[in-house]
Amino acid sequence: MLTYHLVPADEYHATMPTYTPAAFAVEGFIHTTKTLSNVHVVANRYYQADSRPYLLLTIDLERIAAPWRYDAAGEEYPHLYGPLEQMAVVKVQQCPRAADGTFLPIPIAD
Length: 110
Prior knowledge:
Layout: E1 2-8, E2 18-19, H1 24-27, E3 30-31, H2 39-46, E4 54-60, E5 68-69, E6 79-80, E7 84-85, E8 89-94
């Protein structure tokens, strides 16, 4: 199963064996979004004021060692309870933005 994680481009280093966002120390998990078509909604809700370029990590949950779960029934947001191994990241792409900083929908490949 695939899930998606937004990260400022300057905070993600694909050469490191694992990735752990700064917020992990406080929250204890890594936020992800189950549905690609919902990523820009989440990005605009939480990150629109941050003008840095953002990346979208596509994560294969079957490749991670850390436990993950939905913290409420029917949720769209799986949480990863440990570092993200690079081998679970199957794609990295830029998040498109409009000139005013609004995140745009992620193109869905055929």
